Amino acid sequence: MKGYDHDIIVIGGGPSGSTFSRIAAQAGLDVLVVDKRKEIGYPVRCGEGLGAREIIREGLELPKQVYSTPIQGAKVVAPNGKSIVWKDEETKGWVLERKMFDKWLAELAVAKGAEFHVYTRALDYLKKDGKINGVVLSHGGREPYEVTAPLVISAEGMEAIMARKAGFKTVHNPYDVDTCYEYEMKPYDHENLIELYFGNQIAPRGYVWIFPKADKKANVGIGIGGTVLNGTKRGNMKGSDPKILLDQFIKNDKQLREASTLLDFGGVISVGSPIDEFVKDNIMVIGTGAKQVDPIHGGGIAIAMETAIIAANTAIKAFEKKDFSKATLYEYEKIWRDGLGKKMNKRLMLRKVMEKVSDDDLNYIFNAITDQDLNQVMKGQFAGPVAKVLAGRPQLLGILSALVS
Amino acid sequence: MITIDHSGCILCVGCSSVCPVNAIEVVGTRMEHFPEKCIDCGACVRICPANVIEMYKGVKSVKDLPADKQKPR
Questions:
Q1: CATH of domain A8-48+97-170+275-324
Q2: I need a labelling partner for A286 at 20 to 30 A (CA). Which of A17, A186, A234, A403 fits?
Q3: B35-60: pLDDT as tens digits
């Protein structure tokens, strides 16, 4: 925009930042994307699963190098080993090669005219008459420089430092995170299903996952509640230690205990509710930084991409009106809360109910429901499956009633 | 304040995401701690998946740490 260096500055080149900038650049806006990492997509953050719907909806075609293997469905396993296999359109997708995937999304945005700079950190905001009108950047810790734009997008992911500096409440309460540990392992014979193992002994307030990968590899990981005190941390402090439980799981699995580890990493994922506001004058927060994640599994990629499109369309309108006030930008927040927000609220309810269910009850529930019921539950249609469970185990009414009230 | 064993840190930024006072941030290519801001709440220690953070309650500067912890690893 006239009088500014760029139309939009996007902080963060992950799935939300790259998708936002692709849509905005395609509409002719001048978009600068900065990412503090030295390389787009690296270090890799948690998460390699992506549903097919997102890519199809956007009319994109996933190139071979960005995924390891397609997924046919999900296998959900109860504490006693009983499993439900669930295969339908909902569960089709890919296990990604995350670094390559992030790079691909960034390159699509570059092809539409967005300008990316890596190893470039946003230090602070520039302000005029009390309103944000740019950011102070530094490349590789060198001399800071100023760049102006009437609109700033925080697409920062978990820590969301710049969003915090703008007054958004992006700090996570430890209760609202899961701590994760994961290995890439080989060999593991799989059926191209995502395997999820539940149970309070296996993974308190979380689950163990086995994501199939090409060439008999698998991403084997665990997420447990951030306030679970199952381990002893340095200095003898009690804390959440996912690795102990993951190693235990692997030791009990005939295939995995013989397998090699090829990669070892971990992370912290957000599993709570979204932040209480996404926009202020001249700034929007999108993606995981706004805690826009699925509270059941902590997945954020698909939501981030869907959110980025909503936000980009609002941004395009703001440029047409040359109005970047909170009131104008709020359109994005309203669409989000009315749509995705409602869906995520239901998922959060489900997570909170699952936390209270004992392993014995969980075994019962897995026995009582079918893959069709599971499908309904994931769509937020709880009534049918809940009724089925309560018919045989009415004492669960106290816990499950939260889902149908 | 806390110490971070950078040799084992996996840069997941989990600590930074739960720190209520912005006392840990990625600076360059590693996590950096700002002891003057730290309130010794221990959230980062409890959630660190790599178990590389250790808390020294009440200590406010590096020079008051045990001798073997003063040099960054």
A1: 3.50.50.60
A2: A403
A3: 999 999 999 999 999 999 999 999 98
Task: Read off the tokens for A71.
Answer: 């997924």
pLDDT at A322 over 70: yes
What is the least distance, in Å, from the CA of B70 to any CA of chain A?
15
DSSP assignment letter at A39? B
The whole-angstrom separation of Cα B17 and Cα A330 is 25
Phi, psi of A170 (to 5 degrees): -90, 0
Q: What is the ipTM of this complex?
A: 0.90
User: A46 at the B interface (CB within 8 A)?
Assistant: yes
Token digits of residue B72: 């960054």
On chain B, the residues whose CB falls within 8 A of the CB of A170 are 17
CATH of A174-270, one of 3.30.1300.30, 3.40.50.80, 3.30.9.10, 3.40.50.2300: 3.30.9.10
With a pLDDT cut of 70, the percent of chain A lying above it is 99
| Per-residue model confidence as pLDDT tens digits over A68-120 | 999 998 999 999 999 999 888 777 889 999 899 999 999 999 999 999 999 99
Question: Are A241 and B51 inside 8 Å of each other by CB?
Answer: yes
Digit-coded pLDDT (tens) for A154-212: 999 998 999 999 999 999 999 999 999 999 999 999 999 999 999 999 999 999 999 99
Q: Å from B58 to nearest chain A CA?
A: 14
User: Residue A131 and residue A283: Cα distance in Å, rounded?
Assistant: 10
Q: Could you tell me the end-to-end alpha-carbon distance of chain A, in angstroms, rounded to an integer?
A: 50
* B32 vs A contacts (CB less than 8 Å): none
Q: Which residues of chain A have a CB within 8 Å of the CB of B18?
A: 171-174, 177, 226, 268
On whether any CB of chain B is under 8 Å from the CB of A180, the answer is yes
Say if residue A59's pLDDT is above 90: no
Cβ-based interface (< 8 Å): residues of B facing A = 5, 10-20, 22, 25-29, 42-43, 45-56
What is the pTM for the complete model shown?
0.94
- Round to whole Å and give the CA distance between A297 and A347: 9
B2-58 to CATH, choices 3.50.50.60, 3.30.1020.10, 3.30.70.20, 3.20.20.70: 3.30.70.20
